[in-house]
Amino acid sequence: MLKIIIKILTLIMLVQIPLNAREIDIDNLIQKAKISNKHLFVFLHKTDCGYCDSMIEFTLDDEKVKEIVEKKFLFVHININENDNVTYKNFKGGGKEFAKHVGYNFYPTSLFFDDEKDISYAVPGYRDEKIFNVILNYVDSKSYKKISFRKYAQQFDFNKKL
């Protein structure tokens, strides 16, 4: 009887693993974002990463950041420790392999894709909510086509609330 219960529990665990994996088709998401006149925002992070946790808790959970992301971006997160299946152009593989494929295997990283299916702007590392608001506006306004972020950000006084 115990052997049967162990076999059933093992089978249940094996069946659940593939069910937890998400299919993330970056190309399809870019098309959806394009139809909505938005950029695709892909947030790469990993489990047990203090900077990733801080970015999620303090930056992405900030009310102003959430408002801009909801209105102006199509958002997807990829935890590289999960079993997600990612498709992008000619690439198909896991989240960790995707991050390496696009050249950003540093966490956290925020990737913004344009409607041509290219990364228009990438932000490796943690950013607080003030800076991230400016980054979101920089990407949304497509200022990355005209000027560097450094020049764009000079117009903001970071000593006052943005």
- Mean of the pLDDT scores? 89
Distance between the termini: 64 Å
Assembly state: single chain
**Overall 3D shape:** globular
Number of helices: 7
User: How many β-strand runs?
Assistant: 7
Top CATH class: Alpha Beta
Could you describe the 3D structure shown?
With 162 residues, the chain is α/β, with parallel strands linked by helices. It has one domain (22-148): Glutaredoxin (3-Layer(aba) Sandwich), CATH 3.40.30. The protein is built from 7 helices and 7 strands. Helix 4 runs parallel beside helix 6 (129-140). The protein is globular and about 40 Å long. The model is unreliable at 4-11 and 14-18 (pLDDT under 50).
Descriptive keywords:
162 residues; alpha/beta; Glutaredoxin
Short characterization:
By secondary structure, the protein is α/β, with parallel strands linked by helices. It has seven helices and seven strands.
Give the helices and strands, then pairings.
Blueprint: H1 2-20, E1 23-25, H2 26-35, E2 39-45, H3 50-60, H4 63-72, E3 73-79, E4 85-88, E5 91-94, H5 95-102, E6 109-113, E7 119-124, H6 129-140, H7 149-153
Parallel strand pairs: 1-4, 2-3
Antiparallel strand pairs: 2-6, 4-5, 6-7
Helix pairs in contact: 4-6
